[in-house]
Amino acid sequence: MAIPLGMAFAIASGVGPEYGLYTVIVAGILISLFGGSKYQIGGPTGAFVPILFGIVSQYGIENLLIAGFMAGCMLVLFGIFKLGKLMKFIPRPVIIGFTAGIAVIIFFQDRLPTSSD
Predict the structure, then answer these.
(1) Which residues of the chain have pLDDT under 50?
(2) Is residue 79 in some structural domain?
(3) What sections of 1-117 are H helices per DSSP?
(4) Which of 33, 46, 60, 113 has the most CB atoms around it within 10 Å of its CB?
(5) Number of structural domains the chain divides into
(6) Cα–Cα distance for residue pair 26/20, rounded to 1 Å
(7) Residue at 115 is within a domain
(8) Alpha-carbon distance 111 to 109, whole Å?
(9) Cα–Cα dist 21/17, whole Å
(10) Could you list the residue range(s) of the whole structural domain that residue 47 is in?
């Protein structure tokens, strides 16, 4: 399930489908090695598509690895300082609104006219 989804997200992010395939394979191995559960389920999520598309379109594919490394460092720091417990203070409507906003961005990403049209 993760392989076609990863390839689709790669295309939606502005890179080739092979990058999605590589990412799914490497991420699957890393999730298995470092996951905290016996039955770990992990895979790509749609919330990253607008973020990745913006990074690739503005800075190029070469800098996507740097952005991923920086995001990983932030996640490690959040884990070290146990900042995940702060999630309980984010109201449910905010989380639902964020998710709905991402869905709208993904839906209209290729449908909105640009200045070159």
Answers:
(1) none
(2) yes
(3) 2-12, 17-34, 49-59, 64-80, 92-108
(4) 46
(5) 1
(6) 10
(7) no
(8) 6
(9) 6
(10) 2-108
Closest by CA to 23, choosing from 55, 86, 68, is 68
Quick one: angle between helices 92-108 and 49-59, nearest 10?
A: 50
CB of 29 within 8 A of CB of 71? Answer: no
User: Is 117 within 8 Å of 62 (Cβ atoms)?
Assistant: no
Does 101 reside within a domain? yes
The sign of the CA dihedral 103, 104, 105, 109 is: positive
Given this model, what pLDDT does residue 114 score?
A: 56
On whether residue 114 sits in a domain, the answer given is no
pLDDT of residue 90: 94
82-114 tens-digit pLDDT:
998 998 999 999 999 998 998 888 788 766 555
Token pair belonging to 109: 């990403």
